[in-house]
Automatic annotation (TrEMBL):
The keyword Membrane does not apply. Keywords: Oxidoreductase, tRNA processing. Residues 118-217 form the Rhodanese domain. The lineage of its organism: Bacteria, Pseudomonadati, Pseudomonadota, Alphaproteobacteria, Sphingomonadales. This is tRNA uridine(34) hydroxylase. Gene3D superfamilies: 3.30.70.100, Rhodanese-like domain. Its EC number is 1.14.-.-. HAMAP family: TrhO (MF_00469). SMART domains: RHOD. It comes from Sphingobium jiangsuense.
Amino acid sequence: MAALYHFTRFDDPAALRGPVMEQCRALDICGTLLLAAEGLNGTVAGMGDAVERLVSWLRALPGCAEMDIKYSTASERPFGRMKVKLKREIVTMGVEGVDPARDAGLYVEPCDWNALLARPDVVLIDTRNDYEVAIGSFAGAINPDIRTFRQFPGWFAEQKAQWEREGRAPPAVAMFCTGGIRCEKSTAFARSIGCEEVYHLKGGILKYLEEVPAERSLWQGNCFVFDERVSVGHGLAPTQDRMCRACGHARGPDGEHVCPAGE
């Protein structure tokens, strides 16, 4: 399996849909890829070297040579079929003019993340949705308590306004998300409204859990993932969390879970 994304400028994403689907079918790839004027995003799976061959093909697309890839394995075929979808955004924020390819915050490697968080002037923000934060986050992180990423810009703008009402300049801000894509946009948005010192975790939580030993980790709990594993822990080891069929959120191995669908 490969989770991948890249912000770049596609002049005609609709013209790419057919060739991308044709390539995936030829390699017997399953999963979902999203195409938009701002780039591509998705998760795919295949047998043998099929995924690596697809990744090589995708990296040959305009501006995609540095595309971010996270590999993992699955014991069973994780997706029923292949879908290539055209979207307005590859991760939906709903704010016009935000350009992550140009304006994203400063990347921080997982090995340097702990040192950044040790700074007393850094405000740490989890950019994920409430049900993701519920099963794990970094110690001391602010939870925006949002149900969708569309709510993040309004929440963050209010945070900045509160700092200004208190007579404070915007602090240094560190943001993180599952794989990095939401932080590309959230940090670009923060910079667009006047926050100057903005950082984000390169490769997201998943890269941190993969590279930082558990004994040095500041991560607490599990990390929700959007596939059949449901969540992972340190070393990207699958946990015993299971998916609630009613709401699509994670529940513990003993079924403990407050379901927003009321079941």
